[in-house]
Structures are given as structure tokens and as C-alpha cells.
Write a structure and sequence with these properties.
The protein is α+β, with helices and mostly antiparallel strands. Helix content is about 50%, strand content about 20%.
Length: about 180
């Protein structure tokens, strides 16, 4: 399994951001699973999960990794092709599907920040800042010559973002999102 997969194809991004497929990919971060296992965890019909798995497989996000017998019936095991999948939407115009995804993600991040005690003064700025961060070129990750642990890779990605971020944008972020002194 590769450490990282950077996705910039708009059609593949549309596939991966669909809610059920995103949940399937999250499940497969922990271990390879059969379709019936995924269906049970997601509380979905096996045929529904099968259709989503096939779309993910055809798009190259997951692959068959083996076989497991459940009640003497062989079932294919599916696993991710990469530990980390990074969406790089800067290479295409943002479609309405991507815009809806960005709105939902912004709302989720805002709620999470507020639960941690941060005050978000400008949700629109937060959305633009998140897009800005995603648009920072992190193609340097493709130059890695060795496999890295997922946690080390995540830290490396953060460091690259911090090295490339505009100082004025960071200052603006601090003005619009802060943790009030209590």
C-alpha cells in the first residue's frame, strides 16, 4: 500500500466525496474488509455497498486484497490503495458538487472549532482559508524515496503547509478565529 495518493482528477474527486463512499474509505483505513462487513457496519444493503465499492475500485481508490470465508462462503476482501488520500482540487473549476462538499466541510470544521472553545467570526473566511491551504503546492510529498508511517507523513504535510503559508494570511486567520480568554 502506498503512503499517499494525491487526487486532482475532478471526476475522481466527485466519486470520493460522496458520503457513503467516503465512509467506506474511512472504514478501510483500519483494516481490509468484505462487502458484507462494510454493509453491516454502515447499516446499508449489501447491494448498495457493492455498487459503491465497485465505483471506488474502478476509480483506483481501493483494490481486492484477498479472500475471507464467512460461513464457508468466500468473500473478497477490499483495501485502500493508499493510507492517505489528499484531494487537490486546484487543478479544475469548482463544480457545484465540490462547492456543496466545501460548504459541508466548512460547517463541520467551524462546529469542531467552536466545540474546542474557538470563536469563528467569519465562516466565509474560514472556507476561503481552507481552500487556500488545500491549494498550497505539496507535490514535494511525491518526491519521498521511502515509505513513511502515517503519523509521520501527516506531520510532514503540516510542516510543508506551514512553510508555504503566507504570513499575512495566518495573521488574518488569527484575527477571525481565536480562543477567547476565560
Amino acid at each position: 500500500m502506498k503512503e499517499i495518493e494525491i487526487v486532482d482528477d475532478p471526476e475522481k474527486i466527485k466519486i470520493i466525496i460522496e458520503e457513503t463512499r467516503a465512509k467506506i474509505l474511512r472504514l478501510l483505513r483500519f483494516r481490509d474488509m468484505t462487502i458484507s462487513e462494510m454493509a453491516s457496519i454502515l447499516n446499508k444493503d449489501v447491494s448498495t455497498v457493492f455498487r459503491h465499492v465497485k465505483k471506488l475500485e474502478n476509480a483506483g481508490f481501493i483494490r481486492i486484497t484477498g479472500e475471507r470465508k464467512i460461513h464457508n462462503v468466500p468473500e473478497k476482501l477490499y483495501g485502500r490503495v493508499a493510507k492517505s488520500i489528499i484531494l487537490a482540487p486546484e487543478s479544475f473549476e469548482r463544480s457545484s458538487v465540490i462547492k456543496r462538499f466545501e460548504e459541508k466541510r466548512t460547517t463541520n470544521v467551524k462546529k469542531a472549532l467552536e466545540e474546542m472553545g474557538y470563536e469563528v467570526k467569519d465562516e466565509n473566511f474560514l472556507k476561503k482559508f481552507m481552500i487556500y491551504i488545500e491549494d498550497l503546492p505539496i507535490e514535494d510529498l511525491n518526491k519521498l524515496s521511502k515509505d513513511m508511517d502515517w503519523n509521520d507523513l501527516r506531520v510532514l504535510q503540516h510542516i510543508l503547509i506551514l512553510l508555504k503559508i503566507d504570513v499575512n494570511k495566518m495573521e488574518e486567520l488569527r484575527k477571525r478565529i481565536h480562543k477567547p480568554i476565560t
